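Subject: sequence -> structure tokens, single chain

Hey, anyone have a minute? Need the predicted structure for the following. Not urgent.
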Amino acid sequence: MWFFRRKGPSGFSSSSTAEEVTEGINASGLTAIVTGASSGIGTETTRVLALRGAHVIMGVRNMAAGKDVKEAIVKEIPTAKIDAIELDLSSLSSVRKFASEFNSSGRPLNILINNAGIMATPFMLSKDNIELQFATNHVGHFLLTNLLLDTMKKTARKSSKEGRIVNVSSEAHRYPYREGIRFDKINDPSGYSSFAAYGQSKLANILHANELAKRLKEDGADITANSLHPGAIVTNLFRHNSTISGLVNLLGRAVLKSVQQGAATTCYVALHPQVKGVTGEYFSDSNLAKPRPQGQDLDLAKKLWDFSMVLVK
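Reply:
Had a minute. Here:
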């Protein structure tokens, strides 16, 4: 069991679960997209949002796994409104197809949770020839968010309800390459470190949310954008590293969060009234936190935005 239990100003702590941080919140009438929803904290986030009444669209790479998750949740919560659409974040064409299918459905969109991720993979390039962790964890979500923004803006205007964009980052953002984002060497296998590349992609999640928050404010859109660290969790993110996988299995229950605790901060930032109007911030353990200085660098955030725009063109 997770043992650092001290509550923060929000009234919640690292041991709070997603159900606890959303207790009493009515999300009926809200529509949410959760990427990477077929496993780990993505599944738990989907379950809890559905439990609170939201209509959840799962973005899943494996439709069979998505179907299983949907059936399991509906069995537990017969009133749950859940749909699944195929989405491979490492493929820009898959992202475009997902966004096109969602936008043409005429559904509203109140909440976008950019949750999907891969961790510490060996050096590989995506279908679009972008280093795989950067492609999946950042670039795919960057494009997805841009393609869904008009729908979110329209929904916020029509419903008079604040839209929320939530980027699931990680404390690993503190350990990227020395320069933070290797703009000139993003696809360079020499000097590639699977962990620094993961840290780089997680730093990008924070910078993306910050720059997006700034742009949405300038637009006068009633949409917030925040990022968060879910906590060290027992999930299959570690599958590419057998040593860490072994350690996780050995120590997991004692020092890592459960999936229920791991999904808490995401659900808190997505639904809690305490977070209304809060934008461009970083959260951990369902409380405000501070990212490393690079994660607060406005120039770096703007540079990443421009760089990402070129990559998705």
